[in-house]
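Let us practice reading a record.
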Amino acid sequence: MPEDSQDSQNLISGGHLVAKALKAEGVERIYTLCGGHIIDIYDGCVDEGIDVVDVRHEQVAAHAADGYARITGKPGCAVVTAGPGTTDAVTGVANAFRAESPMLLIGGQGAHNQHKMGSLQDLPHVDMMTPITKFAATVPDTARAADMVSMAFRECYHGAPGPSFLEIPRDVLDAKVPADRARVPEAGRYRASTRAAGDPADIERLADLLVHADKPAILLGSQVWTTRATDSATELVRTLNIPAYMNGAGRGTLPPGDPHHFQLSRRYAFSNADLIVIVGTPFDFRMGYGKRLSPAATVVQIDLDYRTVGKNRDVDLGIVGDASLVLKAVTEAASGRLNGGSVKRKAWLDELRAAEQTSIEKRLPQLKSDASPIHPYRLVSEINDFLTGDSIYIGDGGDIVTFSGQVVQPRTPGHWMDPGPLGTLGVGVPFVLAAKQARPDKEVVALFGDGAFSLTGWDFETLVRYDLPFVGIVGNNSSMNQIRYGQKAKYGDERERVGNTLGDVHYDKFAQMLGGYGEEVRDPADIAPALRRARESGLPSLINVWVDPDAYAPGTMNQTMYK
């Protein structure tokens, strides 16, 4: 610590108290864009050994904090200045809120003695952040700075995880108080475990349902990864012989080729199963608000948040708890009384596997298409073949990422990242930043729509500056194609191009300009060699692939808003 940073009377500033609280929570880095209100936090982070990662837009900082939390299981942290610095970060916080991702956003504010006087960048940040966070507050006094940071982190884990927000006035951060006046919570001693195992009677009931079901199916959602329930989920489906579907961050729980791994027959399974278990996924638009489940099926929902269970659709059994503990307990309760029940399900699994094969064969011509412009199915098929067991896959876009959701299969748990249910475009580059810094040993592969990349693409320079190589692919159709389809469907061909058409941007040259690797692809035979060259370059890369603008993903065409 510089000699003049704290004086001889053992005084400590608000910024240094914030840094101590971040250190106690295990925060290794903050994502930030500098501003005069917040620089004392930087000074404290230097003393505490916390990396200060500077980006080009506050939305990127917030998305990166969200992404860091998803990869590591520890809360992420972004620090931004007041006013437009905080409002720029709103989208990232809102995305984390819908995705149940624990992160803390710290925003600056004018000094207390300038309250309501019109100080520089003064806005009612707490009022704006309250609806999209689990906790939002102002730090009123320097001595409370560390205590309130710890309080905000504690609130991130109340029920399902999510973001918190703290506004810290400039004079609170800059002022110094005697160290013995400030409460600095000790690591590991200021918040309890939030891992609930569910009601034992409900565990027994679910075990009984699974033992006696003829055609069970289970959906493993994002909370399976949030609670690190991979082993528990895998043991359950294998012990009880249950077909498993995965969505969100739950993708990769079972590897491709596992006899219980299913992907393309979910609609068929949910229409014909007699027991459906939904783990860590709300009945939101992705689930047709629960209407896609057979009304004749027994439905069980397991979730961290009491408010989510039974929302939008009645359930026969609801269990509030940590997926890892609940699924492990259910397996233990059922394993002693299977009575051959799991064996008789072979016909059910064979039925679902046949439905999967039918779907694969239906789209096989497009997956192998040699057409130019390139069919998006061919592109995402090549990407899937390119992935290794160590590849973290990130999807950032609309229609192109909808295509990839049907084809790309991560080989390992925790290796799939997408925005989540808010459907936010622009998460790709910040997620790459977070993933590569959190797991430098992993390869990161990111697929962007050209519209999505444009929102936060300038932080490609941040990836170059921090020497974070990744393989990036832009599916370029010079359109916001998911919206274009909806306009075409509703208003006809003559009005399909209103407000959704982009220029023909050479993103490969953009990457080269910023010091990365770039390559253009127009022939589908060139996709795989270009991906390999990007991998071998050791640089942040963008492979600009020109895809057919008149090809739409089935998921896009089936969206209810266009009906």
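A brief commentary: The first helix runs from residue 14 to 25.
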